[in-house]
């Protein structure tokens, strides 16, 4: 037989369950635009008779067993993986755009334009090698050409410095996120053990892991106590309430492309940190130090620009020998010619580095090849000899014959028509670099767009699972309101029944 007041008790439980449902629905609606919030649902079950062997045929109503967050850990893992990959490609795309701006296009490149201007003035000078005003313009254009190369190198170095700063900032952010996740792990484990709700704490933790995954490739596993263990390339970053800290240090290794830049190591063990193959930090490091055709970064493109400056300067100064169809042709360089007001071959190099004179330049290396290895895009300059006296600009192949422009004609050919490197003229050599940069930039942008779309799709999928739907919550609101009203009506009915019964007893 059921308890005398069983009906009222059941109705009260119904009121309580409906009230919890209304509260949860209200909480969901209020957080519909909150980043990282996972919608919550009420789990409830029916209560059986008070005793196992009770003769009552009626249960004892309903009870709320839990309020759970709706979230897919599997989709989270997939998103963290794709987010890391997309973030690395975003870095590649962003910085390749900046590098492309430095080099320009084959039509708009400042370096190509300056080279064309220099060649044009050399052609003008060839018409009258004694024209001192044209010689002054040649010097000005040559200095402008060198300045443009210097500026390009400075711009690339500036981008590399920015990347180095990004590395340091990323390490600081990783440490911060790891520390916060470890703290939330502790709070979640404690709350879970005491039976308290951990929904909001878990949302906050997942949001931090989202941010962490954008910086570095991570593997995340969940323990029985709901805490996360996070590893990077097999090394534990976070486990329970403990976080393994990273630190930056300055690399001092002349054989390394990272010499003078920040290196990263685990603070406790001192072991080098490997960022894996994804995440923004990996992108920063690769773009900062990449120097090979398989790992193209700032260093690779700087080396390409340095090679162009060095090859062009050496060909201009020393001349080149070209073999084509079994025929060998030698083109004189500036050092082979003489200027005006000179009785003998000067042997002056037109281009040196850091403003050195021709003699200082030649003596700067163990041999001539070693001396040319000192010329880079950052250091190339017009020699001090030419800066001090434009009459020393070589044009003639014969001393005393000032109208002779044989050497100058060869130099003009070297500027545009003669292969100075493999099968490339100076213009073609630079255009190959420009085309390579443009192609790499376009490829990086395309790869990022594709991977970003994948990450967005997965994020949309997990949002469809865990996000709040206003339509769904409106239905829930109506359902719980109806349930509450029905239970309230039952409370009123049972109160009336008890009042009538008690009145009959009093009579």
TrEMBL record:
Signal sequence annotation: none
Organism superkingdom: Bacteria
A Pfam family per the record: FlgK_D1
Keywords: Bacterial flagellum, Coiled coil, Secreted
Coiled coil (UniProt feature): 108-166
Domain Flagellar basal-body/hook protein C-terminal residue range list: 464-503
Residue stretches making up the Flagellar hook-associated protein FlgK helical domain: 96-318
Domain Flagellar basal body rod protein N-terminal: 10-37
Keyword set includes Cell division: no
Major subcellular site: other
Keyword Coiled coil annotated: yes
Subcellular locations according to the entry: Bacterial flagellum; Secreted
Family as reported in the entry's similarity comment: Belongs to the flagella basal body rod proteins family.
Protein name (record): Flagellar hook-associated protein 1
Organism whose genome encodes this protein: Sporomusa silvacetica DSM 10669
Source lineage: Bacteria, Bacillati, Bacillota, Negativicutes, Selenomonadales
Gene (name only): flgK
């Amino acid at each position: 037989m059921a308890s005398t007041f069983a009906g009222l008790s059941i109705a009260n439980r119904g009121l309580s369950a409906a009230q919890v449902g209304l509260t949860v629905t209200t909480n969901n609606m209020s957080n519909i635009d909150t980043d990282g919030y996972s919608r919550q649902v009420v789990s409830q079950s029916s209560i059986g008779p008070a005793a196992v062997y009770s003769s009552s045929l009626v249960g004892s109503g309903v009870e709320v067993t839990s309020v759970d967050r709706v979230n897919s850990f599997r989709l989270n893992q997939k998103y963290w993986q794709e987010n890391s990959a997309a973030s690395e490609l975003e870095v590649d795309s962003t910085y390749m755009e900046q590098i492309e701006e430095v080099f320009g296009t084959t039509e708009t490149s400042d370096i190509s334009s300056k080279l064309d201007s220099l060649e044009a003035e050399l052609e003008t000078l060839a018409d009258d090698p004694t024209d001192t005003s044209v010689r002054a313009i040649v010097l000005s254009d040559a200095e402008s050409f060198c300045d443009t190369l210097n500026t390009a190198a400075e711009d690339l170095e500036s981008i590399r410095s920015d990347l180095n700063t990004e590395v340091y900032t990323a390490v600081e952010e990783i440490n911060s996120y790891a520390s916060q996740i470890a703290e939330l792990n502790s709070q979640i484990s404690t709350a879970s053990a005491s039976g308290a709700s951990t929904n909001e704490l878990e949302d906050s933790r997942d949001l931090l892991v989202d941010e962490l995954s954008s910086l570095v490739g991570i593997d995340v596993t969940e323990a029985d106590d709901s805490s996360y263990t996070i590893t990077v390339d097999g090394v534990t970053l976070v486990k329970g309430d403990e976080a393994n800290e990273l630190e930056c240090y300055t690399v001092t290794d002349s054989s390394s492309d990272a010499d003078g830049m920040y290196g990263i190591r685990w603070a406790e063990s001192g072991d080098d940190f490997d960022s894996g193959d994804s995440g923004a930090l990996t992108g920063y490091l690769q773009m900062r130090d990449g120097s090979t055709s398989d790992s193209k970064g700032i260093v690779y493109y700087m080396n390409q620009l340095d090679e162009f400056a060095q090859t062009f300067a050496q060909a201009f100064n020393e001349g080149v020998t070209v073999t084509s169809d079994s025929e060998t042709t030698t083109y004189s360089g500036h050092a082979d010619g003489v200027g005006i007001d000179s009785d003998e071959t000067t042997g002056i190099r037109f281009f040196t580095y850091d403003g050195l004179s021709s003699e200082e330049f030649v003596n700067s290396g163990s041999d001539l090849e070693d001396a040319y290895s000192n010329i880079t895009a950052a250091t190339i300059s017009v020699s001090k000899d030419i800066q001090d006296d434009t009459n020393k600009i070589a044009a003639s192949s014969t001393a005393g014959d000032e109208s002779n422009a044989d050497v100058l004609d060869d130099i003009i050919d070297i500027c545009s028509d003669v292969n100075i490197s493999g099968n490339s003229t100076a213009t073609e050599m630079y255009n190959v670099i420009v085309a390579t940069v443009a192609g790499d930039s376009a490829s990086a942008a395309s790869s990022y767009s594709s991977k970003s779309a994948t990450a967005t799709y997965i994020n949309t999928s997990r949002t469809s699972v865990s996000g709040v739907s206003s339509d769904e919550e409106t239905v829930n609101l109506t359902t719980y309101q109806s349930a509450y009203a029905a239970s309230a009506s039952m409370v009123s009915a049972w109160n009336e029944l008890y009042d009538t019964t008690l009145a009959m007893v009093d009579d």
